[in-house]
Amino acid sequence: MELEVKLSFDSRDKLYGLAVSDEFTEYCTDAVKPESVLLENTYIDTLGMDITKRGGMIRVRHYKGSEEDFYEFTVKYGGGVTEGFHKRYEWNARSEDDQFSIERFKSLITTDSDPSDMLSEVFCGIKDEDLKPICSNSFNRIIYNLAFADSTIEACFDYGLITNSDGSKTDEICELELELKSGEPADIDQLAKKISGKTGCVPLDNTKYGRTLKLATGTDYE
Predict the structure, then answer these.
(1) Nearest alpha carbon to residue 188 among 196, 179, 197
(2) Is residue 92 a contact partner of residue 73, using CB atoms and an 8 Å limit?
(3) Taking the complete model, does pTM exceed 0.70, yes or no?
(4) Phi, psi torsion values for 42, nearest 5 degrees
(5) For 75-110, what is each residue's pLDDT tens digit?
(6) Concatenated DSSP letters for 49-86?
(7) DSSP assignment of 119-172, as one string?
(8) Could you tell me which residues are beta bridge partners of residue 7?
(9) Element (H or E) spanning 94, and its range?
(10) What percent of the chain has a predicted confidence (pLDDT) above 90?
């Protein structure tokens, strides 16, 4: 299960300023500064939004970095969110192309993914031909690896812009995601509170998918 805290910043300067602050860098385990990569996300569902309505999400992500260029399929399902703390079942599969299919995804997911019976609930009654692109976004991400208390935490600095189909509406992505890789959930909560106290950032309950979908369709599914 994915455990992460999302924190929203009111400016790019404050977001990136945290990354170079002593209070943050003391926990970093990276030998060199990580590079910024471009993430292009396309979300797919049925035209009736069956996956979304049952609490799921399917994402096709294109990673574009100076050294790596690949696709990743992600399915999330269930869970919940409280004051920026997100808990969801999650399955990931790396791919050389963007051609998502249900059976291919099931064959590619890693062995340490969440239970397959939960995944079956996501796809129940859905066929490949039912799935269509629904909305998309893109943003730049810098990932830092942290050692905090007894835990290993991944810190993702995300900045970009969500735009609707005709460009008439936009929504800024300016957030930090703290994902627990190993250790105690209490540690990630403590780190989030330390960061909030220093920067004034606030917990973010809405996901990028939810915000993008609302801008594209005018409907709030979260």
Answers:
(1) 179
(2) yes
(3) yes
(4) -120, 130
(5) 999 988 888 889 999 999 999 999 999 999 999 887
(6) -HHHHTTEEEEEEEEE-SS-EEEEEEEEEEEEEETTEE
(7) HHHHHTT--GGG-EEEEEEEEEEEEEEEEETTEEEEEEEEEEEEE-TTSS-EEE
(8) 176, 203
(9) strand 85-95
(10) 79
| 8-state DSSP, 28 | B
Q: How many residues belong to the chain?
A: 222
Helix (H, G, I), strand (E, B) or coil at 91: strand
Structure tokens at 165: 């189909």
Q: Per residue in 108-152, pLDDT tens?
A: 887 677 788 889 899 999 999 999 999 999 999 999 999 999 999
d(CA 44, CA 132): 5
In the predicted model, is pLDDT for residue 14 greater than 90?
A: yes
Look up residue 177 and give its two tokens.
């995601």
Q: Is 79 left (phi over 0), alpha (psi -120 to 50) or beta?
A: left
Q: Which residues pair with 74 in a beta bridge?
A: 59, 92
- The CA-atom distances, in angstroms, between 104 and each of 98, 107, 124, 184, 193 are 12, 5, 16, 33, 40
